[in-house]
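Section handout 9: paired folding examples.
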Amino acid sequence: MTFRTETLDVALIEGYRRVLNFLELTKPRVVLMVLVTTFVGFYLGSESMSGYLHLIETLIGTALAAGGTLTLNQFMERDADALMVRTRKRPLPDGRIQPIEALFFGILVTAAGLLVLGFTVNTLSAMVTAFITVSYLFVYTPLKQKSSLCGVVGAVPGALPPVIGWTAARGEFGLEAWVLFAILFLWQIPHTLAIARLYRDDFAKAGIQFLPVIQRDEGSTGRQIIMHSLALLVVSLLPTLLGLAGSIYFLVALSLGAGFLACGVSLAISQSLATARRLLFASLIYLPVLLVVMALDRVPL
């Protein structure tokens, strides 16, 4: 009896670890950010928040599609991940999950998310999500090994989750949805460049061609950060000008944008790891605060 109990306990523990390993493949923290931006797009695009079931269906479909896409991305980049200190302990390079398992799991979860969106929400939101999956996996991922333009290209699928939410709520695109897209797109460039600066040597080992890796003088990196941060400051004010958010949001966006730009200028001037870390921290504060205030100060459509 004791032997059987111990065997069962070991099996349960191993099963639990397997589940956690597959969950890790989906990058839950990234999926959470995707869901936050999707929710904001849905909330801002809704005439009322009475359709809670519709929102839940949207978030479930988006979470599945995002988690599956991120799993497939790790499947495609498993060899590069094995070369970098920051990623070599992921389930695939560490050998905890076999590549064929990750491939089938990623395909299954992604397909499930697209089906949920297509059959329970609407076709347009499923099409936007499918475009994110295809562009992320088959354009951005291989481009990382070939050109520094990968950062700009990768910002496109990364900026589309609020458009999923908007189209799920309204069944159509709108200028407001593209403003939300532009905010996330412009935010991602300084955010990604700060990460690339911090882990430049690691990315170089894996042959990933982020701008700080291939142009180590960092002049181009600094200019890109300042240019996109300045554009972000301007574009982030548009929700108020378009009647999507109120004056409180305008003041918060102006203050956040100015602080974010200041961090970008600081990195461009000093080009140090400390300023890169500060910019990364600022980017992680900037986006959720901006989106929360935008939602709280929403002007009803």
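Moving on to protein 2 of 2.
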Amino acid sequence: MQGVEKCYETIDLNTEGHCYAVVVARFNDHITQKLLDGALDGLKECGVKDESIHVSWVPGAFELPLVAKKLAESKNFDAVICLGAVIRGETAHFDFVAAEAASGILQASLATDVPVLFSVLTTENLSQAQERAGAKEANNGYSGALSAIEMVNLLKNL
């Protein structure tokens, strides 16, 4: 995806002195582990050291906002990246979990003035989730990490 690489060439991806938290939902871990791998790849490719990355696992996407808010409130992290996979089923459960996870993650960011990234897949089926947890730029975790870095630098320069 050369277009994505070109797009990020003009964005400040400096990570010096920055710390990042990643919150990952265990539910659908066959997908979320790939998202985590992508996020870690993105952070490390931009120069973030292992000791500047904290990973927390939660039961599911619904639990992401609370832990993200606590991590953001700690002021130990410049950004928090939330990873999850909510795949539509035969009940309305999908709608509630996806909406509340998104709303809670937004509220965590607004309440703390720390970028809290929504890298939660909300897909119609497993195939779509697998596509969005693919390699490099096709991985929503990877793009979430780059977005986190971008937001940290953008906010520092405002």
